Amino acid sequence: MAAVQVNIQLKKKEAIMAITDMSELVQNGLDRAVELMAVAAHNSYRFGNRNTIKLISVGREEMDEIAEFSYSLGDMSPLAARDGRFMKELVKEPCALLLVGDSRKSDLNFNCGACGYRTCAELNRAEEVESLTARGPSCQFKNLNLNIAVNAAASMAWKLGLHCRVFSTLAMAAFALNIIEGVDLVASVSVSVARVDPYFDRHKYWTREYWDEIFEKEFPTFTRGFIGAIE
Amino acid sequence: MSIERSIKQFQDDRMEAVRIAARLLLASGTTTPRVGGVGECTIHILDDPRDIEDLCQSVEAMAGEKDSWQTFKRDAAMLRDSDAVLVITSLRSLTDPADINCNMCGKLTCEYYRESEILPSEPGVAFTGPLCAFRANNIAYALDGVINQARTLGIDYGVFWSAGAAAMRMKIVPRDTGFAVAVAISVTEKSPFRDIPLRYDEMNDRTMNDRIIQRLWPQFRSIYS
């Protein structure tokens, strides 16, 4: 009996003195945060009172795959390449990627014309157009429902103090790679608990010389007084 | 309810809270993300009851244009009960596609989109699509920014695409507006946007008041006095 009591006391002491490492706390917190973001997205406002969104969170392996694919689109889309290269750096610290998708056809019967067809029935009958980024044509209000869910997730991340950015590029890469299936439209929310906010002011990628060169190329008239002033 | 001074004060303060809240909602909706970081959404506050009534008339007028728009009458009844309306617009979705070639509109490239025929502006067409879906999605962000702030502040809200379309028809939003939705807000003890019975356009606070108080009571009073 006494031995058992000593054992219990020892266990209690262990529990009181247990130290959880910061990285473990942060990782566990991130996992909970992603779940809460999913709840916020799942329960967000939507037109037509229909919850048809699909939502998944992907792991390190998929994120690597998405990053690699996005980066490889360099010539086709500088924006995707930028985000792919960025994602390669991002995954070195704890982060998560939430992919949200929805179907393109309308079951809302608003018949509003925003998609370019007079009625929802016409849109649903229209020929489907495949591409790497999305399947169209799509119902504008389905698009809104999807992106409201995305914004709700991002808003939850903001409230929880996570670093966060919404990416179309990474979502479209995931779509192209069939990482998220059974949907026609996609968007993604990336969150991170890196030591500094990795999403904005990413100056480390741009040297002064490179920036000046690109700026000069894209905005030649900025430094030119009038046409022909500088040869 | 009685008309004590303190109750009058409460009613005035309630309306002031609406005006302040509407502007805070506008702030939150404005600062939400935009795809590609390109600004294109504007938010317009209607907090004058006369402006809201004009909007309601326009929404009601649209109800007759299509069978599937019959619910617009209910929308108008709810909008009449609201204290302010925020109209959120997208200024680039019709005139300036994003050049992303995303295919969400069903045209493989933005060049094809530019060449495509848009719907004529006529009865039965709320938005003259096709719209650049990539651009118009910004409305979703602005809208959720407004909703989120309303929830944080504890303001009742309702979302009405009918009122967005009506505002475009009334030309009270910027000229380039391709797409618009409206958020009505209310600072009242019972949200006018929840628990909406069937035939709400016929049976609501105003019609009940009109038939029971304004019509029956004066007769009753003149007979029995």
| Shape assignment of chain A | flat
| Number of strand elements of chain A | 4
Alpha-beta content class of chain A: alpha+beta
Q: Which percent range describes the beta-strand content of chain A?
A: 5-15%
Radius of gyration from the alpha-carbon trace of chain B, in angstroms: 20 Å
CATH-scheme architecture of chain A? 3-Layer(aba) Sandwich
Report the total helices of chain A: 8
Level-1 CATH class name of chain A = Alpha Beta
Q: Which CATH-level-2 architecture of the largest domain in chain B? A: 3-Layer(aba) Sandwich
> What name is given to the CATH topology of the largest domain in chain B?
NADH Oxidase
The biggest sheet of chain A amounts to: 4 strands, antiparallel
Radius of gyration of chain A: 24 Å
CATH superfamily of the largest domain in chain B: NADH Oxidase
Greatest interface by residues involved: A-B, 45 and 44 residues
- Residues in helices of chain A, as a percent range: 40-55%
Approximately how much beta-strand content do the residues of chain B carry? 5-15%
Mean residue pLDDT of chain B: 93
Question: Overview of this structure, please?
Answer:
Chain A has a single domain (22-197), classed as NADH Oxidase. Chain A is built from 8 helices and 4 strands. Chain A has helices at residues 2-17, 22-42, 60-72, 78-90, 120-125, 140-159, 168-176, 208-218; strands at residues 54-58, 95-102, 163-167, 185-192. Chain A has a 4-stranded antiparallel β-sheet, sandwiched between helices. Chain A is flat and about 90 Å long. With 225 residues, chain B is α+β, with helices and mostly antiparallel strands. Chain B has 2 domains: 5-194, NADH Oxidase; 199-225. In chain B, 47% of the residues lie in helices and 12% in strands. Chain B contains 8 helices and 4 strands; from the N terminus they run H-E-H-H-E-H-H-H-E-H-E-H. Chain B has helices at 5-30, 49-63, 72-81, 110-115, 133-136, 138-153, 161-169, 205-223; strands spanning 41-46, 84-90, 156-160, 179-186. Chain B has a 4-stranded antiparallel β-sheet with strand order 1-2-4-3, with helices on both faces. In chain B, helix 2 runs antiparallel to helix 3 (72-81). The chains are: A alpha+beta (231), B alpha+beta (225).
